[in-house]
Design goal:
Length: about 260
Amino acid sequence: MKQFSRSRTSLNTLVGMACMAALPAMADKLAFEDANGNPLSGIIKDAEGFAQGDYVVHGYALDPAPGSLVGAIIDGASNSGACVALACGVGNPSSYYAALNDGIIEIEHSKAGQAFSLQSFDASFIGGIYEGLGQPVAGVLRVQGFRADNSTIWQDFELQGRDFNTTGFDFAHFVTSQEFGSQQFVAIDFFGFSCNFDGDCTAFENLKGQFGIDNIEVSAVPEPSSWLMLGSGLLGLGWLSRRRQVAASAQGAAA
């Protein structure tokens, strides 16, 4: 069983690499709106993607079946669609991305090999009608960054449960640690763990690692041409390689 201990919320570093010299960053916020500020809509199946400013967002399944549903864009003002049968995020009136059925959301820059960093985001757990009731922590959101050499680090964020008199899970604002936020990645994956009353959390076990995410703040730093060439050459490793590392990080969480 792939388990996550709630006590293990610190940054886990698999492979270290020196940070590059600081350069002026180009900040952006992924709010799941179109170029005119209108909310996006629709469902996301495995490997489907869409543009958000200078970034590309894909939804993936770890072990996909043809046409696997991995996500949807939800109107937070009404929480309609997929949220009719689920307890979704509340307190966020704008559109947001809902990762469903153990779905993984991956962000890359539209310019091949362009590195970027992650500063903050808003997120909530998504569960069944009776999930998370009376629990201090309903789930854990793992954020796993991949560098151009395919080395990776991750950071975990606890998603709070809900009271018995509430219909959904509160969105909260999360800021990455200084160590994680200073890293430069060519891809960042987000995936969820669901937790029980005892605080044991599992990923990719029961299709319950679901979460909502919005207002993802990222910034890209112009890189030397040699670094872009390295990144472009290694992008061929792509999602298949990152999928193996995501699975390894979930398995590695078992202590």
